[in-house]
Each structure stands twice: as structure tokens, then as C-alpha cells.
């Protein structure tokens, strides 16, 4: 018969095993979005049966790795000072954000291949809300544009961060350049347009 003190030890052992597997999945998928279950099990130092005892399929494991990465990112971004002028706060936020995005770019690619788009949006909701709140404050301060939908502006920040991470991965942007490039691009997108600025009309046919 299993004693009462044996069950907590088994639960603790299981939790440590899960933590090792998730950490290995996060590291493996951050290097290679095509990392297999065998690759991850080997990196975690466990057998396939042990891994499948905790995660029934690869998508479930990929999601756990992404959740872990996002949780770590939230701990970092939660410590960023977002007070004062929204433009200065955005610069501080971007400086911390791009490195996190670069680290998880391959992991996000893996997640995009196996998780529904709606689930990915839900997982990123916290980061999107932080950017949205900062843009709204900039609009209230009169330093950020109000002529475009807020959801589009939030997505534009997201696109720039991911694009910069990809450029860095391909060696077209040095690490020392990225924060400045991201900041300049995002701030120019969010800036209040000059008076009477208009989108150029499409040329007439003919």
C-alpha cells in the first residue's frame, strides 16, 4: 500500500520531471522549431514514455514551452518603468521586448505551426494589453496618433519586433543595432502625423 508521505514525493518527482521537460522543450525549440519529441526527451534526460506520460502530443508540449517563455518574459517586462512621457516609456519597453522576442522567435514559429491562431492571441494578450495601454496614454498626452485603429497600431509594434528579430537571426542586423532600429521605426509609426498629411491617392488608370 502506498503511504501518505510517498504520494507527495511522487508528485514532487513528477513536477521536477515536467519542469525539466518544459525547459528542454523551450531550449530545443528556440534553437530549432522542428525539434522532435525525441530531441526534447533526450535534452531533458528522460525517455519517450516518461515525456508522453506528462504531454500526450507534441502540440501540448510546444504550448507548455511557449507559456513558460511568455511567463519569463512577463517577469522581465513587468519590471520596466512605464511612467512619465509615453514616448520615453515605449523606448524602455521596446529595449526590453526585442531581446525576448528574438529569443523566442523560433519557438513562436513552432507554436504557429501547431496551435490555433486564437490560442496564440490569448497567450500574447498580456503583452498586447501593455502596449495598447501605453499607446492610449500617448494619445491622451497628444504625442501619439489617433487617426488609425488602436488594434492596428498594437499589431504594427508586434510586426516590427518580430521583423527585427528575424533580421537579427539572418545576420542583417547586429545586436547592437536592433534596439535603435526598432525604437526609431515604432516611434515613427506612432508619431502624430504632420498637419494636413494625406495618404497619396492611387494613380488613375490609363
TrEMBL record:
Presence of the UniProt keyword Transmembrane helix in the record: no
Pfam families reported in the protein's UniProt record: TetR_N
Residues spanning the signal sequence: none
Keywords in alphabetical order: DNA-binding, Transcription, Transcription regulation
Domain annotation HTH tetR-type: ranges: 15-73
Annotated region of DNA binding: 36-55
InterPro entries: Homeodomain-like_sf (IPR009057), HTH-type_TetR-like_transc_reg (IPR050109), HTH_TetR (IPR001647), Tet_transcr_reg_TetR-rel_C_sf (IPR036271)
Name the UniProt record assigns to this protein: HTH tetR-type domain-containing protein
